[in-house]
Write a structure and sequence with these properties.
By secondary structure, the protein is an alpha/beta fold. The chain is built from ten helices and 14 strands. It has a single domain, classed as 3-Layer(aba) Sandwich (UDP-N-acetylmuramoyl-L-alanine:D-glutamate ligase), CATH 3.40.1190. It is about 35% helix and about 20% strand.
């Protein structure tokens, strides 16, 4: 039984191995968080749908090798996983090109086995999802996911929501803000990003963002500030060091994992933020959203 269940989409990822070659791996915001949590030693499930193709089989095997419980990886016949490519500028800032429309994950709430998967999810200690998780779903799928979150919160479980905004996935910012606010009302831990909130129409201070999310229903809010660290529990928590990133892909997802892992372990919000900063700092100095473990990977307590 998973202690933490993340909901979303895992895709095939292309990133530059060098100037001439592309590296084939996988990624997706909540998937990245799930993998880091599994590496920390947490019992993790990932609720999504994959296809019945060879790429889907490879993804299932790779995620199981990372320690993710495969029980919630549903199969949508005749569907395929999404694909995205990462390119980086001279400062390491990334941009994405996607091929994901109609991917298997968009059909997760109509996939065979979804009723059993939802029941198993609601037995977990924590649910995690993002605005991207909602964006890829049809309206009825969004409603189904928020219903799961509401029931889990009502049952006294943790619900973590990341306001990860990607404009291309929405009709406009107003639509995204509507679903973001509906999600905020279901969560116990809110994980907004200063930049995303500005892009969606709220160019506010960290204090203002935290107050608005709390007024909307979130009981605990961590505002991610990029290289400046984060704002949590009324305080600015800077990272332990200022880095020159090699690749910023997945930094916020890694922060989420460090923060949530530490909070479930009983750490204070400030201590959890430092755990998030450490894992995010390790990620940005390597290539890809979920770099292979190495000797410097900060997963040990």
């Amino acid at each position: 039984m998973a202690r933490i269940v993340l909901v979303g989409e895992g895709m095939v990822e292309l990133s530059r191995a060098d100037a001439a070659l592309w590296r084939l791996t996988y990624g997706g915001d909540t998937l990245n968080t799930a993998i880091h949590l599994a590496r920390f030693g947490d019992q993790v499930g990932f609720l999504t749908a994959l296809g019945d193709d060879p790429f889907s089989a490879d993804l299932r095997a790779a995620w199981a090798d990372e320690g993710i419980d495969p029980a919630l990886l549903l199969t949508k016949p005749a569907s395929r996983p999404g694909l995205y490519a990462i390119t980086n500028d001279a400062e390491g800032e990334r941009s994405f090109t996607y091929w994901r429309k109609g991917s298997a994950a968009t059909h997760v709430f109509t996939a065979p086995g979804i009723a059993e998967a939802v029941r198993a999810t609601e037995e977990a200690e924590m649910l995690g999802f993002s605005l991207i998780s909602l964006a890829i779903l049809p309206p009825e799928g969004r409603v189904a996911l928020l219903d799961v979150a509401r029931r889990m919160r009502a049952a006294g479980r943790h619900v973590a929501f990341d306001g990860n905004y990607r404009a291309r996935l929405w009709t406009d910012a107003r639509e995204a803000a509507l679903w973001r606010d509906r999600a905020i009302a279901t969560c116990t831990i809110g994980l907004p990003t200063l930049e995303d909130e500005a892009q969606i129409g709220h160019p506010e201070t960290p204090e203002e963002i935290a107050a608005r999310w709390q007024a909307g229903g979130a009981t605990e809010v961590v505002v991610k500030l990029g290289v400046e660290g984060c704002f949590v529990a009324g305080n600015h928590v800077p990272p332990p060091a200022r880095l020159a990133p090699h690749d910023t892909s997945g930094a916020g997802d890694a922060f989420n994992a460090g923060y949530l892992h530490a909070r479930l372990a009983g750490c204070s919000p400030a201590e959890a933020a430092q755990m998030g900063h450490r894992i995010a700092g390790w990620v940005v100095m390597r290539v890809g959203a979920v770099p292979p473990r190495d000797i410097d990977a900060p997963y040990a307590p």
